């Protein structure tokens, strides 16, 4: 009885090895390290867990998508039965958004930092890009949205989201410096001494696609200076005080730019976008907080 109990405990501690056999695996995605190099087999115990997790995802992806569609269809049916208006469908909303005229200001998310992040943080970047896309497509005056340095790692990470190729985002494998005229580029970085008061037309504002928990503070500013690109910081200190460090995620910066371009005053835009937990409140006078306490390149 004791041996049987130990066996069960062992099984419960390692469920990953009990959920699949080789006969269950239809898609074998392989396994790569953080630098994209194919790992040789046999895998270590830890690598095996990661591989099985990836196998489960790839093999269940289609089934999961079908279940999501079925649930959405059932929700629509129940809403119609209850005379609840769910608004336009995703298909009609997408068509409507594609027909809307974009303002002549662009946002670029620079994804040239893949090698500086672990897999978990790369997924956070993708999640924030997804939020930016969602915010932009619901705007009456969406920004031109670009993602540059779109490499193999990011393509693999973002492929978890079916149909990303059809998003209203322009993906470029090259760096922004090879795609846009340098005089039209502007890097948003908190280390800059320049404070932005308005966003210019026919200009592309760059946000660093980096979740680094402040390990590479100042990197985006350094890149902008080296490349001879204009740079500036958002006027947070002029309009709001915050209880915490002024660390903004990619989607925070994106939405602030979008709202100001929509005509929302800076103060209102900042208060709308910044999370409640930040404790943002209106400045009566210019804050004494140093711009060094602000960051657009890190996650919270």
Structure description:
With 300 residues, the protein is an alpha/beta fold. The chain folds into two domains: 19-86, no CATH class; 95-282, 3-Layer(aba) Sandwich (Alpha/beta knot), CATH 3.40.1280.30. It has helices at 2-13, 45-81, 90-99, 119-137, 152-158, 219-227, 236-239, 250-261, 266-273, and strands at 105-110, 144-148, 170-171, 185-188, 203-208, 230-232, 240-241, 246-247, 281-282, 294-295. The strands form three sheets. Strands 3-2-1-5-4-6 form a six-stranded parallel β-sheet, sandwiched between helices. Helix 4 packs parallel to helix 8 (250-261) and helix 8 (250-261) runs antiparallel to helix 9. It starts with a helix and ends in a 5-residue tail after the last strand. Keywords: Coiled coil, Methyltransferase, S-adenosyl-L-methionine, Transferase.
Number of helices: 9
* Alpha carbon gyration radius: 23 Å
- Determine the N-to-C terminus distance: 49 Å
CATH topology of the largest domain: Alpha/beta knot
Protein structure class: alpha/beta
CATH class of the largest domain: Alpha Beta
Anisotropy-based shape: globular
Number of domains: 2
Organism: Danaus plexippus plexippus
GO molecular function: tRNA (guanosine(9)-N1)-methyltransferase activity; tRNA binding
Catalytic activity: guanosine(9) in tRNA + S-adenosyl-L-methionine = N(1)-methylguanosine(9) in tRNA + S-adenosyl-L-homocysteine + H(+)
Enzyme class: transferase
